[in-house]
Amino acid sequence: MTQVLLSPPLTPAAQAVAVLRRQGYAVLGRADVCAIAGCAPEQLAALDASWDRLPPDAYLKDGGHYRRRRHSCFVVTARRVTQVPHRAHWQPLEYNALHGGMRRWFEPIEPQIVAQAAWAQLLAGFGGVFSALRAQGESPWYVEAHQFRIDTTDGIGRPTPEGAHRDGVDYVAVFLVGRAGIKGGETRVFQADGPRGERFTLTEPWSVLLLDDARVIHESTPIQPLETQGSRDTLVLTWRMDGFMEERV
After folding, report:
1. 185 lies in some domain
2. Taking burial as the number of CB atoms within 10 A of a residue's CB, which of 7, 19, 101, 180 is the most buried?
3. pLDDT tens-digit series, residues 136-175
4. pTM confidence score
């Protein structure tokens, strides 16, 4: 059966800040991601193999085995990217009704990946976009980085098992690293306080969806295999000004 995939509304790199300011989200193709990061496509592609080495997510509360991930945290100030000591990922229940309220310790992103120039260039480049949007100058960003692989081990894989949500941060960047042998995985973005919504499917490796987390809600639909096994790989970066999200005591 032929898949019908809705193409994303692409924004040129030079217009990313203006489009984010106008509607709360923007989608950029790989060439524009490279323009913002100041790196070549082959530098981004050199990161891809690390997704084959992601350990299973042991915290899935729906009993599934379809998600693998790693997680690390960074502080980004201007062009300087500093990795901080490994820490748990935590979200309040108001933002993640399924997995919120618990400290989740994932394996860190591999040192050889963090050491590659393209990694720091991605974080610094998109930090510049969000700083320009917020007009905050040299103030630091607190960035959590999540590598995800969603596969069809269970027959169906859920990129966002918590459903349509916000992340409780200032901005989010969802990079599609790759997808293979699947149908589904449609991206949906909705106004947080209005009726407008848009749906499309990211298919180009290293394209990205940028989100103003206060203004929009997002989700990705489940994936199913086209024939046998399939998978969808993403890199999700979340950006906060006021420090990392901390467990409330």
Report:
1. yes
2. 19
3. 777 899 999 999 999 999 899 998 887 788 888 999 999 9
4. 0.94
Per-residue model confidence as pLDDT tens digits over 92-139: 666 555 565 578 899 999 999 999 999 999 999 999 999 999 887 778
Domain region containing 231: 13-206+213-240
Quote the number of domains for the chain: 1
Q: Which long-range contacts (CB under 8 A, 24 or more apart) does 74-77 make?
A: 74/123, 74/142, 74/143, 74/144, 74/145, 75/140, 75/141, 75/142, 75/143, 76/123, 76/124, 76/127, 76/140, 76/141, 76/143, 76/239, 77/138, 77/139, 77/140, 77/141
Dihedral pair phi/psi, residue 50, rounded to 5°: -65, -20
Asked if the structure places residue 165 within a domain, the reply is yes
30-37 and 117-134 helices cross at what angle (nearest 10)? 90
User: Is residue 5 one of the residues assigned to a domain?
Assistant: no
Confidence (pLDDT) at 249: 47
The CATH number that applies at residue 232 is 2.60.120.620
